[in-house]
UniProtKB/TrEMBL annotation:
Record domain Lactate/malate dehydrogenase C-terminal: where: 3-110
Organism field: Diacronema lutheri
Gene3D superfamilies: Lactate dehydrogenase/glycoside hydrolase, family 4, C-terminal
Protein name: Lactate/malate dehydrogenase C-terminal domain-containing protein
PANTHER family with a match to the protein in the record: MALATE AND LACTATE DEHYDROGENASE, MALATE DEHYDROGENASE, MITOCHONDRIAL
Keyword annotations: NAD, Oxidoreductase
Coiled coil regions, renumbered to chain: none
Record has NAD as a keyword: yes
GO molecular function per UniProt: L-malate dehydrogenase (NAD+) activity
KW Coiled coil (keyword) present: no
Cross-referenced InterPro entries: Lactate/malate_DH_C, Lactate_DH/Glyco_Ohase_4_C
A single Gene Ontology CC term: cytoplasm
Length: 117
């Protein structure tokens, strides 16, 4: 588990190194955004059981907002789904990273507030 965790954490740098400066990881973000929009549009058109992960109010209470699986419907989020339980190792990692996640979320909210949206 620790080897896999290290590999996932360094995956962004690995992608950049493999591209040798010819491309950036921005394409991964663009692809993820495109897939998300496709799923939202599918739900708006009536497709059922569309599940995506979205930054929503956190039902667990450890943070005001967190990425959670959500069931989409024609009008948007139909229901926030349970993310599942964490293993002991995952819970420890989550607790270690939570302050960093909270700071990043606050920075994002501050940027939106400054832009007046």
């Amino acid at each position: 588990v620790s080897a896999l965790t290290r590999r996932v954490r360094s995956s962004g740098a690995e992608v950049l190194a493999a591209s040798q400066g010819r491309t950036t990881a921005v394409y991964s973000v663009a692809l993820a955004a495109a897939r998300f929009v496709e799923r939202v549009l599918a739900a708006r058109e009536g497709e059922e059981n569309v599940v995506v992960h979205a930054f929503v109010q956190c039902p667990r209470g450890s943070a005001p907002y967190m990425t959670q699986p959500v069931l989409l419907c024609r009008r948007g989020v139909g229901r926030v789904l349970q993310a599942g339980s964490l293993s002991g190792t995952e819970q420890c990692e989550f607790e270690l990273l939570l302050p960093k996640l909270l700071r990043a979320a606050k920075r994002g909210k501050d940027v939106v507030a400054q832009r007046g949206r």
